[in-house]
């Protein structure tokens, strides 16, 4: 790209600082966050980089995606939803900041990304948190990291329309290097667990597909869980979310709760229990058990929650006959994106070859393989 293909406000750009906003992985605990349950995510070393400077105007904002060569210009007094999805992550965050009574001024921002979009590693949460973190620094707003996570989640609800939970934003901004976060999404209590995989690594295999069902089905699942709660709540008024239900209590509703709602709730309640068991297994250094729980999680997501797809199932199934992989599952919202594999370090190369050949033969796509490690949440480096 030459200087003259870059929009005018970004020529000879002198940034004040760069924000590094990471994607996330999730070891176990899928679709539990919006049910007030448990998750076990962490940030990774793949980031979105956002170069910021104030432009000393009261209201004019310029944002340029260098990676996708797209330019967004807007006025702080007139923010509304856009037809371009990527713009809504930015507009939504700025608007949510304003709603909190904080007022950024004009700024310019260049964005570069090495986070694949649609891979289920939360490029959207990284973008939201990165914008909020940068504006917080640039204009000395008084936002805590947790407030940034929450307002970014709200931006996704109100501007993008996905009624997501808090996991992605929380882990993008509050992770610690070398640790997993056991996050209790009911009260946002975080316990940092040292990620000690003893000779094993985390390997992502990107299916390269991102089925369009993802967002609409996501909101449908959330509604189904809320309906199940409403039903149970009639008999047990203290039940405010599926987090307040255990398997024994749920079983009382086996014959009365509509079958689909029962199945969805059964997945969520079981998954919450699995997260806690997985943390225990990790503390006991029992990676076989940890891996088993990952497989159970996948089975629940595939059969009960029905958010997997044939490409994800294929990659998970492959691992069951390959001993060095201790556990594998689909990761994130589903309908495409990555699988996460807990694999013996010295088998990674061989496994990537086996998986790539098999996947290529079946789907005519080479899956991208990414070895990841737990990294710190959003940070900035000054010029
Ligand atoms: C997406 C959402 F954004 C998260 O909040 C979470 O629900 C996840 O899907 C599934 O666990 O990434």
What this model shows, in words?
- The chain is globular, with a radius of gyration of 21 Å.
- It has 2 domains: 199 residues, Ribosomal Protein S5, domain 2 (2-Layer Sandwich); 173 residues, GHMP kinase, C-terminal domain (Alpha-Beta Plaits, 2-Layer Sandwich), CATH 3.30.70.
- A 6-stranded mixed sheet has the order 5-4-6-3-1-13, with helices on one face. A 4-stranded antiparallel sheet has the order 10-11-9-12.
- It has 10 helices and 13 strands.
- Helix 1 crosses helix 3, helix 5 packs across helix 7 and helix 7 packs antiparallel against helix 8.
- It is an alpha+beta fold and 383 residues long.
- It binds 2-deoxy-2-fluoro-alpha-D-galactopyranose.
- 2-deoxy-2-fluoro-alpha-D-galactopyranose binds next to helix 4.
Q: Count every beta strand, where a strand is a DSSP E run of 2 or more residues.
A: 13
User: What is the mean pLDDT?
Assistant: 96
Rg for CA atoms: 21 Å
- Strand arrangement, major sheet: 5-4-6-3-1-13
Structural class by sheet pairing and helices: alpha+beta
End-to-end separation in angstroms reads 23 Å
Q: Architecture of the largest domain, CATH level 2?
A: 2-Layer Sandwich
- Return the CATH class of the largest domain: Alpha Beta
Q: Which parts are unreliable, with pLDDT below 50 for 5 consecutive residues or more?
A: none
Profile the largest sheet: 6 strands, mixed
Shape: globular
The CATH topology of the largest domain turns out to be: Ribosomal Protein S5, domain 2
Number of domains: 2
Helix-strand topology string = EEEEEHEHHHEEEHHHHHEEHEE
Small-molecule binders here are: 2-deoxy-2-fluoro-alpha-D-galactopyranose
Counted by DSSP, the helix tally is 10
Amount of beta strand: 15-25%
* Helix percentage range: 25-40%
Keywords: ATP-binding, Carbohydrate metabolism, Cytoplasm, Galactose metabolism, Kinase, Magnesium, Metal-binding, Nucleotide-binding, Transferase
Enzyme class: transferase
EC number: 2.7.1.6
Domain GHMP kinase C-terminal: 278-359
């Amino acid at each position: 790209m030459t200087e003259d293909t870059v929009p005018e406000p970004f020529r000879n750009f002198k940034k004040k600082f760069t924000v590094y906003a990471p994607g996330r992985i999730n070891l176990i605990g899928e679709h539990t966050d919006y049910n007030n349950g448990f998750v076990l995510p962490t940030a990774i070393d793949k980031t979105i980089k956002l170069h910021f400077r104030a432009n000393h105007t009261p209201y004019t904002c310029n944002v340029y995606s260098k990676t996708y060569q797209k330019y967004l210009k807007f006025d702080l007094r007139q923010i509304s939803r856009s037809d371009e999805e990527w713009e809504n992550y930015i507009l939504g965050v700025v608007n949510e900041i304003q709603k909190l009574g904080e007022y950024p001024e004009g700024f310019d921002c260049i964005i570069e990304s090495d986070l694949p979009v649609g891979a289920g590693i939360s490029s959207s949460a990284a973008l939201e948190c990165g914008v909020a973190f940068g504006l917080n620094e640039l204009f000395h707003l008084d936002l805590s990291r947790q407030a940034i996570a929450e307002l970014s989640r709200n931006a996704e609800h109100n501007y993008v329309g996905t009624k997501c939970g808090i996991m992605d934003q929380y882990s993008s901004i509050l992770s610690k290097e070398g640790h997993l976060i056991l996050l209790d999404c009911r009260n946002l209590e975080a316990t940092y667990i040292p990620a000690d995989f003893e000779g094993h690594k985390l390997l992502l295999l990107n299916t390269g597909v991102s089925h369009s069902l993802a967002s609409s089905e996501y909101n449908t699942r959330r509604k189904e869980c809320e309906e199940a709660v409403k039903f149970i709540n009639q008999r047990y008024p203290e039940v405010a979310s599926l987090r307040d239900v255990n398997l024994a209590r749920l079983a009382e509703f086996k014959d009365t709760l509509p079958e689909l709602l029962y199945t969805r709730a059964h997945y969520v309640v079981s998954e919450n229990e699995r997260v806690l068991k997985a943390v225990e297994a990790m503390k006991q250094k029992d990676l076989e058990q940890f891996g088993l729980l990952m497989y159970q999680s996948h089975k629940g997501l595939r059969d009960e929650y029905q958010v997997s797809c044939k490409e994800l199932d294929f990659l998970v199934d492959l691992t069951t006959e390959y001993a060095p992989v201790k556990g594998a599952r689909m990761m994130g919202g589903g309908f495409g994106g990555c699988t996460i594999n807990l694999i013996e370090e010295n088998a990674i190369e061989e496994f990537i070859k086996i998986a790539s050949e098999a996947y290529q033969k079946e789907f005519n796509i080479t899956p991208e393989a990414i070895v990841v490690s737990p990294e710190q949440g959003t940070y900035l480096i000054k010029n």
